[in-house]
Amino acid sequence: MPKDSRSTEDSPLTERSLNTGAMGCLYGIGVGPGDPELLTLKALKALQKAPVICVPQAANRRDSYALNIVIDYVSPEQEIMRVPFPTDDAEGAAQVWREASVMVVERLKKGQDVAFLTEGDPMLFSTFSYVLAGVRELCPDAPVQIIPGVSSVMAAAASSQVPLATHGQRLAILPAAYGLDDLSEATSNFDTVVLMKVSPNIAETLANLEELGLTGQSTYVRRVTTDREKVIKDLTEITDEDLDYFSLLIIKGRVKGRSQKHQTPRNLED
Predict the structure, then answer these.
(1) Phi-psi category of 171—alpha, beta or left, where left has phi over 0 and alpha has psi -120 to 50?
(2) Using alpha carbons only, how large is the chain's radius of gyration in Å?
(3) 28-63 confidence digits (pLDDT tens)
(4) CATH 3.40.1010.10 domain locations along the chain
(5) What is the predicted pLDDT for the residue at 261?
(6) What is the pLDDT of residue 206?
(7) Orientation of helix 202-212 relative to helix 180-189, angle to 10°
(8) In terms of Cα–Cα distance, which of 104, 17, 108 is closest to 55?
(9) Is the pLDDT of residue 8 over 70?
(10) Residue 168 buriedness (CB in 10 A; 0-12 / 13-18 / 19+)
(11) In CATH, which of 2.10.109.10, 3.80.30.20, 3.30.950.10, 3.30.930.10 is domain 152-255?
(12) Which end of the chain has fewer surrounding CB within 10 Å, N or C?
C-alpha cells in the first residue's frame, strides 16, 4: 500500500511518536466539504499534533480530496499514510480497509497518534467507519476520538438557502443509487430527501423526479463551499459540465396532512 514516509526525528511532533508504553490515539477527523475555513478548531489541533496522518484516496483519483482541504495546515515532518481504495470492487475495498486497520494499529501500539481524515463528517457515509471497525476488532483498548465535521448536506443547504427540515418535519439522507419505487416511497414519507453522490445516476434520477412531479422541488449542488461550487435550482439547466462526483440533490417531498401536534415549534437541541 503506497504511502509517503516522512521522518519525525527531532520534530516537535515526535512527543507521541516514541514508544513510552502509552497507546496512541486514533482521531477520526471530519475536514468539511471543501472550504478549509470550515475546519473546526478542535479538528485543527488534533490534525497538527498527530505524527501520522492517514488519508483515504479513491484508486481512480490522483490525490486525496480530504488531504487537499487541509494541506496548508500539514507539517513536512508529519507522515502521510495513503489508503488507495477501489470504488467498484466491494471485496477489494474490504481488504484495503483491513490492511489499513493493521497499519493504524501498528502506529498506535508504538505510541503514535493517528489522524484519519475524511471529507465531510466521519460518521456519515464515511470511509472512517471501516477503519474504526477494524481497529476496534484488532485492538479494542485503543483510544479513539471522533471529531465532527461540516457535512456536505448541511453546507449545500446553506449555499442553496433551502432548509432541510423545520419543526415536526422528517429528513432522509440516502445514496443516489435508488430506483423510481424507492425514491417515490422516500419522497412520500419524508419532507426532504437528500440524494448523495448523485452524478453517476443523474440521468435516471432526473427522469424519476420528472415522473414523480418533483423536478420543480429539487436543487442540485456540486462542489459545495469550493471555488467550483454551483447551485442549480432549475434541473433542466444541468449540463454535462455540471456533473461532478461531489454533488447532491435536495428534494422537497410530497408529505401531506401532517397533524397539528407534530407542528409545534420546539428546539430539538434543548
Answers:
(1) beta
(2) 21
(3) 999 999 999 999 999 999 999 999 999 988 777 778
(4) 12-147
(5) 43
(6) 93
(7) 50
(8) 104
(9) no
(10) middle
(11) 3.30.950.10
(12) C
CB 28 within 8 A of CB 50: no
pLDDT at 192 over 60: yes
For every residue of the chain, DSSP letters joined together read ---B----TT-GGGGGTS-SSPPP-EEEEE-BSS-GGGS-HHHHHHHHH-SEEEEEEETTSSS-HHHHHHGGG--TTSEEEEEEE-SS-HHHHHHHHHHHHHHHHHHHHTT--EEEEESB-TTSS-THHHHHHHHHHH-TT--EEEE----HHHHHHHHHT--S--TT--EEEEES---HHHHHHHHHH-SEEEEES-GGGHHHHHHHHHHHT-GGGEEEEESTTSTT-EEESSGGG--GGG--SSEEEEEE-------GGGG----TT-
- CATH no. of 12-147: 3.40.1010.10
Which pTM value belongs to this model? 0.84
Which grid coordinates are listed for 236?
Answer: 433542466
Cα distance between residue 116 and residue 2, in whole Å: 16
